[in-house]
Specification:
Length: 112
């Protein structure tokens, strides 16, 4: 066993042509503490990333429904105004109801 002149925390064990480094207790404890901190940080980051992804997914689902209902409502209003006889009035009412449903979704997305 040869003491390393660069520091007291390492001991070099000669093994054939190569030498193997054996770390002493303080260095091993610091390395294990670093590994624990890194594992905990990775777990927290993964949990935060999952929560944010779920929130974005829910918001995008609501946004897609909002856009679809607004587009359908506008299309029904235009078609109903174009026909304006019999089924035209039903299309106008359907368009208004689609826009009302979209406004409820928008109110839910904005929180108030």
């Amino acid at each position: 066993m040869i003491n390393d002149p660069r520091g007291a925390n390492r001991v070099i064990l000669p093994v054939g042509r190569e030498s193997r480094v054996k770390w002493t207790a303080p260095v091993l404890e610091a390395f294990q503490a670093f590994q624990l901190v890194r594992t905990v940080a990775a777990s927290l980051l993964r949990a935060v990333r999952t929560a944010v992804a779920n929130m974005i997914s829910a918001l995008l689902d609501a946004l897609v429904w909002f856009l679809l209902l607004m587009a359908a409502g506008a299309a029904m209003l235009v078609a109903g105004t174009y026909v304006l006889a019999g089924i035209g009035w039903a299309l106008i009412i359907g368009g208004v109801l689609c826009i009302c449903a979209a406004s409820f979704i928008r109110k839910g997305m904005t929180g108030g």
